[in-house]
Specification:
Layout: H1 2-13, H2 22-46, H3 53-65, E1 69-73, E2 78-83, E3 86-91, E4 96-97, H4 101-105, H5 110-118, H6 133-139, H7 225-237
Antiparallel strand pairs: 1-2, 2-3, 3-4
Length: 238
Amino acid sequence: MITSNLLETFNGYIINARTKHLIYMLEDIRTALMQRLVVKRVEMEASSAKLCPRIQAKLEKEKKLAANCTPIPSINTIFQVNYHLDSVSVDLEVKSCTCRKWDLTGIPCCHAVASIFFCRGDAEDFVDPMYTRENYLRSYAGSIPPLVSERHWPLVTSPLIPPPIKVGPGRPRIYRRKDPHENPKKPGRLTKHGVEMTCTICKLKGHNKKTCPNKDKAPSHPLHKKANTSDASTQHGA
């Protein structure tokens, strides 16, 4: 799920570039990433926070929920936390909680935050190091060099030779591969394999009008459209 979400996020990020030609699509993606690296790095350098902005916002929500938790210490690092009608176990040394939220995200849950506050600690110190400001700046420390347009590209004097043609072993094929349902008497035309017939008399599927069991009940001389239109025109003229 995480891999799919990352893929769909990047796919939406380049959705406008995907409609262009391959070379121009790659150029738009390169330009967007080149600018993104600089923007994200400048924003984090201007901030003095210890954590990334979104991680800090999630931690603040857990701090508000921690007001409803009642930690009961077992030892200095293990607590039983009562939250409404629920009771969980928190281990500050292992950084684990029974609700598994801290284990999966690396951000202390409200039970862990309540236990940290009980020890008079700072919740930001118990966040996984991958969410810190230093690692964020290290992730965006790289840069993509600029690229000039086609008019500034160097001219190539050597001719472009196509790759050599490699002939495989064996006799070359003369006739094309035929479709398994192709009509042998009429090359290039397919048979009616898989087509379900519809009777023009009873409108039922599975047979045609020649094998219809109700063909004797059908009118012998059905009215045609031309006859109907001629009769209508005659009545209109009258």
